[in-house]
Task: inverse folding
């Protein structure tokens, strides 16, 4: 196979790939055994064999191949040129005009990305010993990078690999130099740290000053005001959310999408093959599943598919008059799909949205379906009922559940999100967190004033789950945060 043929192979070229390349020693065959990342028609990254050695191969094809190749090569040389920053050795590179380029790096056997390490500890209490050690290790390496006048534009934990007890920087395509060998300027440091912290949970923001100590002990060239850093972090988070929400309706590495005059179908790419039978006939799945709700505007069923419990929600059209109100605007399934993905991205617990299906006639919307994971938890009314039935002195829920409620409301306030139907049955206790379901009316507000009014309605609706004269009501009313001017003091 040639690089030109690879550029036409799509998202899933048949493995193994055998590609004829050349270096100073002459031509040889690169055997690609496993693909790690694919950007169809542009970039293929995989584990390969080259001259009897295991390598990480970056193959760049398409119209932009030459520019991408030079960017990758320049970044790799910047990292290697400083001599003090550990990074995988570049073994061979080349550019074939009109076809594409390649960079072959030493393969780090048994390396673990800090992203994988973080996923193992992210469920621990905020800034646990394990979390602090991991983030401190990353910040020390970033400080060394900045101390050499370099920064990684796509700075996140997956671009830092731990190998034989040492952290290494990867992905040279994102590495840039200001004045190599001299410390990075203060503005660039703040901007780059904003990229790093902006990809971590917002709940860690309260600990940023403590975490910065790890950085400053290695690179104390500049004072780093926390307020200025938080501003950079906010910019990055807003951009990342907008970018992610643009992807949820189009074909990309995360989602498989099909749009046409008769259908809109979007499914998480990793679940596409497993969900294909269900998406082919969702009504049959609903009929054969366990009914959770039979309503005029929606029907909800619990179904089992390949040993996995899923919820299928069908948004019904009640009649011609109802259709006239619905066909021209985004479906309620689309709204719930978008808001579920928003919550999932922001780290607010909700059943993971897996697929969306809209049936259409000449682009005019008809029935729609939403498929999510199943949340098996107990709702908050049932969970807190023993507190109502107990003697007054004992009428208090477990502190862990109250603290989890505090965290949920704090996240909703921070992100300016209103639920729109905050009844107790829409809040489930699962895996030590409160999980939000039924997102048909959820909204993230740009206006602080509109959010304040919507939050006040959510808070009042939430408290109406219990009698106003109960001790539980009073406890929650005292505990839940208020937006000034929207609640009686």
Result:
């Amino acid at each position: 196979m040639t690089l030109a043929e690879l550029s036409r192979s799509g998202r899933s070229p048949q493995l193994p790939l055998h590609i004829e390349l050349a270096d100073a020693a002459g031509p040889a065959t690169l055997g690609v055994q496993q693909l790690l990342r694919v950007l169809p028609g542009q970039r293929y990254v995989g584990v390969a064999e080259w001259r009897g050695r295991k390598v990480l191969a970056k193959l760049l094809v398409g119209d932009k191949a030459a520019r991408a190749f030079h960017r990758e090569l320049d970044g790799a040389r910047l990292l290697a040129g400083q001599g003090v920053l550990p990074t995988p050795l570049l073994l061979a590179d080349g550019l074939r005009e009109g076809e594409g380029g390649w960079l072959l790096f030493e393969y780090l056997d048994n390396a673990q990305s800090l992203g994988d390490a973080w996923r193992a500890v992210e469920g621990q209490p905020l800034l646990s010993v394990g979390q602090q050690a991991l983030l401190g290790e990353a910040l020390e390496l970033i400080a060394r990078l900045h101390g050499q006048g370099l920064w990684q534009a796509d700075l996140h934990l997956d671009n830092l690999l731990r190998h034989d007890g040492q952290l290494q920087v990867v992905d040279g395509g994102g590495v840039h130099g200001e004045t190599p060998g001299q410390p990075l300027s203060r503005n660039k440091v703040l901007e780059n740290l904003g990229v790093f912290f902006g990809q971590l949970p917002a709940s860690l923001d309260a600990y940023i000053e403590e975490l910065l100590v790890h950085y400053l002990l290695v690179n104390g060239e500049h004072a780093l005001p926390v307020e200025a850093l938080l501003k950079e972090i906010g910019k990055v988070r807003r951009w990342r959310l907008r970018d992610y929400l643009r992807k949820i309706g189009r074909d990309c590495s995360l989602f498989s999408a099909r749009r046409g005059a008769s259908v809109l179908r979007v499914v998480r790419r990793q679940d596409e093959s497993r969900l294909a039978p269900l998406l082919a006939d969702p009504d049959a799945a609903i009929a054969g599943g366990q009914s959770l709700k039979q309503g005029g505007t929606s029907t909800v069923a619990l179904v089992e598919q390949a040993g996995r419990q899923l919820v299928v929600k069908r948004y019904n059209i009640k009649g011609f008059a109802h259709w006239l109100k619905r066909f021209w605007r985004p479906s309620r399934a689309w709204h719930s799909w978008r808001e579920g993905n928003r919550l999932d991205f922001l780290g607010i617990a909700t059943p993971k949205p897996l697929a969306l299906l809209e049936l259409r006639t000449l682009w005019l919307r008809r029935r729609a379906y939403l498929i999510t994971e199943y949340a098996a938890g107990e709702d908050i009314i049932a969970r807190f009922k023993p507190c109502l039935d107990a003697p007054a002195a004992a009428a208090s829920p477990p502190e862990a559940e109250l603290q989890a409620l505090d965290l949920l409301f704090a996240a909703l306030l921070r992100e300016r999100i209103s639920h729109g139907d905050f009844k107790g049955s829409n809040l489930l206790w699962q895996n030590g967190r409160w999980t939000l379901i039924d997102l048909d009316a959820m909204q993230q507000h740009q206006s602080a004033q509109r959010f304040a009014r919507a939050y006040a309605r959510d808070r009042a609706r939430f408290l109406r789950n219990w009698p106003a004269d109960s001790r539980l009501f009073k406890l929650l009313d005292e505990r839940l945060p208020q937006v000034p001017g929207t609640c009686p003091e």
Q: What stands out?
A: The mean pLDDT is 90.
